[in-house]
């Protein structure tokens, strides 16, 4: 179980987040920069959500981590808890009808200014491995700056992109092309 110390706060941040998700009728929200240590789950009974936190190494302090908030309706149907991959990736397999599943990924990518470059290259190598371990016919949706050139990235990028592609977006598109 993770360390959920409140400190001087009158209410856990997870409880505040779940109230807002409930108000907005959101069933699943992925979180980054989660500052809990370890891994585990924390039910927020008052508003009907479970908070999952995944940290592979608690020895690196409370710098960053990943988590997700899942409505109790969905959390109760999970066959397995969310899984940690590498240092900055997690996945959750949701059962659908007729023995079908959807896998959601929460990935915390390094910024364009990330140093050293080896860290960024390692991240994209790990992401490539994770995506290759999924079924080839699965659809993926990433929140990234990949631009709008659906013609150049046919079969990889949809027609609803906005803005321009940056270096990290290009690396992601190249991985998805593979």
Structure description:
β5 (83-85) and β6 (89-95) form a beta hairpin. Helix content is 24%, strand content 22%. The protein has 2 domains: 1-107, no CATH class; 109-178, no CATH class. It is an alpha+beta fold. α3 packs parallel to α4 (167-177). The strands form 2 sheets. A 4-stranded antiparallel beta sheet has the order 1-4-3-2. The chain has a 3-stranded antiparallel beta sheet with strand order 5-6-7, with no helix packed on it. The chain has 4 helices and 7 strands, in the order αββββαβββαα. The model is unreliable at 1-7 and 58-62 (pLDDT under 50). InterPro entries: Endo/exonu/phosph_ase_sf.
Helix and strand arrangement:
Layout: H1 13-24, E1 28-32, E2 40-44, E3 49-54, E4 66-71, H2 72-75, E5 83-85, E6 89-95, E7 101-107, H3 117-132, H4 167-177
Antiparallel strand pairs: 1-4, 2-3, 3-4, 5-6, 6-7
Helix pairs in contact: 3-4
Identify the notable features of this structure and list them briefly:
2 domains; Endo/exonu/phosph_ase_sf; globular; 178 residues; alpha+beta; 24% helix; four-stranded antiparallel beta sheet
Summarize the structure.
It contains 4 helices and 7 strands, in the order αββββαβββαα.
Output the strand order for the largest sheet. Answer: 1-4-3-2
Rg (CA only): 18 Å
Distance between the termini: 38 Å
**Beta strands, count:** 7
> What is the approximate shape?
globular
Helical region count? 4
Overall pLDDT: 77
Main sheet makeup: 4 strands, antiparallel
- Tally the structural domains: 2
Give unreliable regions as ranges. 1-7, 58-62
State the secondary-structure class: alpha+beta
Q: Strand percentage, roughly?
A: 15-25%
Please write the string of helix (H) and strand (E) elements: HEEEEHEEEHH
Q: Work out the helicity level.
A: 10-25%
InterPro entries: Endo/exonu/phosph_ase_sf
